[in-house]
């Protein structure tokens, strides 16, 4: 079974631009979570989608948004990029969000650099 | 104060040594995850546990819910174990993980 895939793997943007990152979960997984990793703040939760609905959102500004499609693939969008948005963006998928079924499997990440 | 604390932050060991990494948390949780991250970024889930103990190869994870504490043990450590080990907690079947700051482990041959 293929793992979690993320595209693109690397991205360079300039301040003020917007960016869209994509995540394809493991087949059969319905939950996708997004995380931001920076040297200063470490790993932080962005949001989680389950069955096309955003269930949880972390403490990030409204410039960060996401969505999930009917095939469970998810995208996240960052508008009006700032230098501080430079980070590794990771997505993780799990079968569900309950009980023993929410072990998360991580993708390789998208490294975003904002110049 | 962080909700998830790990210790030590950095650890250097000689090949073959027994290694312990600790994680303490201050909130009620439904599960605790141990993750491994190699240079380059990729994260691998090692364990998810809500009670007791789990073992996988040379890795052992334990959790004490009453004391809000978990440990990750590596037996017979090897240079390929060198990585950052991250503890993360799930507050309540939410998939919203809160992460510790990680432990950078270097195993020298």
Mean pLDDT of chain A: 92
Envelope shape of chain A = globular
Helicity range of chain A: under 10%
Parts with pLDDT < 50 across at least 5 consecutive residues of chain A: none
Distance between the termini of chain B: 36 Å
Please give the oligomerization state of what you see. heterodimer
Give the structural class of chain B. mainly beta
Return residue spans of chain B where pLDDT drops below 50 for at least 5 consecutive residues: none
What is the count of DSSP helices of chain B, taking H or I runs of 4+ residues?
Answer: 0
Rounded Rg of chain A: 13 Å
Pattern of helices and strands of chain A: EEEEEEEEEEE
Mind summarizing the main beta sheet of chain A? 7 strands, mixed
In total, the number of strands of chain A is: 11
Q: What characterizes the major β-sheet of chain B?
A: 6 strands, mixed
Rounded average pLDDT of chain B: 92
Shape of chain B: globular
Description:
The complex is a heterodimer of chains A (115) and B (109). Chain A is an all-beta fold and 115 residues long. Chain A contains no helices and eleven strands. Chain A has strands at 5-7, 10-13, 19-24, 31-38, 42-50, 53-57, 64-68, 74-78, 87-94, 105-106, 110-114. The radius of gyration of chain A is 13 Å and the shape is globular. The N and C termini of chain A lie far apart (37 Å). The model of chain B has no long low-confidence stretch (mean pLDDT 92). In chain B, strands 2, 4, 5, 9, 10 and 11 form a six-stranded mixed β-sheet that branches. The relative contact order of chain B is 0.35. Chain B is 0% helix and 59% strand. Chain B has strands spanning 4-7, 10-14, 19-25, 31-37, 43-49, 52-56, 59-64, 69-74, 83-90, 97-99, 103-108. With 109 residues, chain B is mainly beta. Chains A and B meet through strand 4, strand 5, strand 9 and strand 10 of A and strand 4, strand 5, strand 9 and strand 10 of B.
